[in-house]
Amino acid sequence: MRRIAIVLGTAAILVFVMALPAGAHVTIQPESATKGTDATIAFQVPNEKEDAKTVKVEVKFPDDHPIADASVEAIPGWKFAVKTKKLDTPVKSDAGDVTEGVDTITWTADSGGGFGNGEFQQFLVSMGLPDDADALKFPTNQTYSNGDVVSWIQETPAGGPEPENPVPELKLVAGDSEGGTTATTAPANGGSASAASDVSKDDVDNAKTISIIALIVGIVGVLLGIAGFVLGRRRTT
Hints:
By secondary structure, the chain is of the alpha+beta class. Helices cover about 25% and strands about 35% of the residues. It contains two helices and 13 strands. Helix 1 packs antiparallel against helix 2 (about 200-235).
């Protein structure tokens, strides 16, 4: 009985560990938006260093499907700069051809500011999305107060494992066949999530539930292991 209980306890702990979420990455929330619409998305940046703050975030906008214009939500304690570039091929809009597009957006924390270990910040941007792409990639550089720079630029191979620093990606989906053009909206900082992000919230809740169940099973297994060990000791004395 002692050996069986120990095995069960060990297996349960392994299940619990495997159920824990993977390391946090820079992501885009919501993960998808409708092609050809105006969207407000959030670049969600976690801090993964115990001894340094995140003090700068630079997001590179796509060159293959350029974004003609972007509006940035102001964040207390941070400054932002939008750098534009001349487009090789003008982007058509209701106001005519657009010859410049967004190259990068950089957020820089005020002196002594930033966010630390276990914290994250959402950087909200409103933009018009192209109607001829299935996904947009936004390579991102995250700078820490100790000078370290983490580049989130790695491509995830089709059917392969996710790399250590995957590039943030926004998936683009076809609009309503009935002609609906509802804009995509990211959850505001400290506010409630929109319907577009409810799926992600449900996924997180499910992961938490699985982790809690696995933890309970692990604890029960450990207790059974201890009980089996004690009973075994008593039988041998």
